[in-house]
UniProtKB/TrEMBL annotation:
GO terms for cellular component: plasma membrane. InterPro entries: Tetraspanin/Peripherin, Tetraspanin_animals, Tetraspanin_CS, Tetraspanin_EC2_sf. Interacts with claudin-11/CLDN11 and integrins. It is found in: Membrane. It is a multi-pass membrane protein. This is Tetraspanin. Its main location: membrane. The chain crosses the membrane at residues 12-31, 43-66, 78-102, 203-230. It comes from Halcyon senegalensis. Pfam families: Tetraspanin.
Length: 248
C-alpha cells in the first residue's frame, strides 16, 4: 500500500508539472494570436486557450488537494479529488471538440478578412493592422495574399505610384532590395493567406494535443486515486491503526 501511495504522490507531482505546461500552451496561443488577430475576426477562437489556462490553474490546485489527501489518507479528500478531476477531464474533452471546430473555421475566417486587411495597409503612417501585415510577411516569408502581384490591387500601391511592394516582401538575405516589381526575384513568391491559415491551424493543434495528453494523465490519476480508496476501505487492520482501535 505504501508503494502505491508513493507512486500516486509522484503522479500528483506530474499532474502539477502538467498544469504548468498547460498554462504555458494557453499563454503561447494568446501571444501568437495577438500577432495574427487582424487576419482572424472571430474572437471566440480564443475560448479553447482561455479554458486551457483555467484548467491548468485548476490542475495545480487539484494537485495540492490530492497531495494533502494522500498524505493524510483522507477518504473524503481522495473522493473529492477524483470528482474534481473527472469534471476537469470533461472540460478538456470540450476543449478538444472546440479546438477541432475552430480549426475547421480558420480558413473561412482568414479568407473573409485578409483582403480587407491588405486594402487598409498604410505604409506611410502604419497602424496596428499595417504593422501586422509587415510582421507576417517577414515572419512567414510571404508577400501578398496569393502572391506579390496582389499588392497592385491595393489602395496603398495605387497611391504610392512607385511600382513597388512593402519592404517586408523582400527576401531576408537581400540588403539592397527596394520592393520594386521590376525585380520579382528579390521578393517572396509565396502568398500569405495559405501560410497564415496553416500557422493558426498549428496553434489550435497545440491546444488539442495538450488537452488530449493531459486528459490521459488525469485518467491515470483518477484510476490511482480509486485504487487507493478501494484498498483503504478493504484493509480492516489499516482502519484500526488509523482510528486507534485494537483487535479483540
Amino acid at each position: 500500500k505504501a508503494g502505491l501511495v508513493f507512486k500516486f504522490t509522484r503522479l500528483l507531482c506530474l499532474l502539477q508539472a502538467a498544469a504548468g505546461i498547460l498554462c504555458y500552451v494557453g499563454a503561447y496561443v494568446f501571444i501568437t494570436y495577438d500577432d495574427y488577430d487582424h487576419f482572424f475576426e472571430d474572437v471566440y477562437t480564443l475560448i479553447p486557450a482561455v479554458i486551457i489556462i483555467a484548467v491548468g490553474t485548476l490542475l495545480f490546485i487539484i494537485g495540492l488537494i490530492g497531495c494533502c489527501a494522500t498524505i493524510r489518507e483522507s477518504r473524503c479528500g481522495l473522493a473529492t479529488f477524483v470528482i474534481i478531476l473527472l469534471l476537469v477531464f470533461i472540460t478538456e474533452v470540450v476543449v478538444v471538440v472546440l479546438g477541432y471546430i475552430y480549426r475547421a473555421k480558420v480558413e473561412d475566417e482568414v479568407d473573409h478578412s485578409i483582403q480587407k486587411v491588405y486594402n487598409g495597409y498604410n505604409g506611410t503612417n502604419p497602424d496596428a493592422a499595417s504593422r501586422a501585415i509587415d510582421y507576417v510577411q517577414r515572419q512567414l516569408r510571404c508577400c501578398g495574399i496569393h502572391n506579390y502581384s496582389d499588392w497592385e490591387d491595393t489602395v496603398w500601391f495605387k497611391q504610392t505610384k512607385n511600382n513597388s511592394v512593402p519592404l517586408s516582401c523582400c527576401k531576408a538575405a537581400l540588403s539592397n532590395c527596394t520592393g520594386s516589381l521590376t525585380r520579382p526575384m528579390d521578393l517572396y513568391s509565396e502568398g500569405c493567406e495559405a501560410l497564415v491559415v496553416k500557422k493558426l491551424q498549428e496553434i489550435m493543434m497545440y491546444v488539442i494535443w495538450a488537452a488530449l495528453a493531459f486528459a490521459a494523465i488525469q485518467l491515470l490519476g483518477m484510476l490511482c486515486a480509486c485504487i487507493v480508496l478501494c484498498r483503504r476501505s478493504r484493509d480492516p487492520a489499516y482502519e484500526l491503526l488509523i482510528t486507534g482501535g485494537t483487535y479483540a
